[in-house]
Automatic annotation (TrEMBL):
InterPro entries: RidA, RutC-like_sf, YjgF/YER057c/UK114. This is RidA family protein. Signal peptide: none annotated. Transmembrane segments: none annotated. Belongs to the RutC family. It holds the Pfam family Ribonuc_L-PSP. SUPFAM superfamilies: YjgF-like (SSF55298). PANTHER family: 2-IMINOBUTANOATE/2-IMINOPROPANOATE DEAMINASE RIDA, 2-IMINOBUTANOATE_2-IMINOPROPANOATE DEAMINASE.
Length: 128
């Protein structure tokens, strides 16, 4: 089975932003960086969380998927006490009756001093 690579210029290393295989889209860790840069958005943790979710939506969209196609999300928080703020913002990104499965993991560090990184898997009935 062939794979299609999505690159949007926002990765911090030698990896693809997303890889599509069949009808599955695997999105790499996405953070609150200004699009196309390795610079975190200014404005604190809430702004970083909002930018992270915008960036996730942009990568998914570029791959030809939508947020409603996401079936699984893993979020890595540098400070688990940010979970309520993350949850509040995250909940605006998905319809409650079809929200994806999710795990939130506390970590000691993230690249570039980020406070949050999110990865996901999306699936569609048809292929992209």
């Amino acid at each position: 089975m062939s794979k299609r690579i999505i690159q949007n210029g926002s990765s911090l290393g030698p990896y693809s932003q997303a890889v599509i295989v069949g009808n599955h889209c695997y999105v790499a860790g996405t953070g609150g960086f200004l699009p196309g840069t390795s610079q975190l958005v200014e404005g604190g943790k809430e702004a970083e969380i909002r930018q992270t979710m915008k960036n996730l939506e942009a990568v998914i969209g570029e791959a030809g998927y939508s947020m409603s196609d996401i079936v699984s999300v893993t979020a890595y928080l540098r400070d688990v006490s940010d979970w309520p703020t993350f949850n509040e913002i995250y909940s605006t990104c998905f319809e409650p009756e079809s929200a994806p499965a999710r795990a939130v993991v506390g970590v000691a560090e993230l690249p570039a001093g980020a406070n949050l990184e999110v990865t996901c898997v999306a699936v569609r009935e048809d292929t992209a």
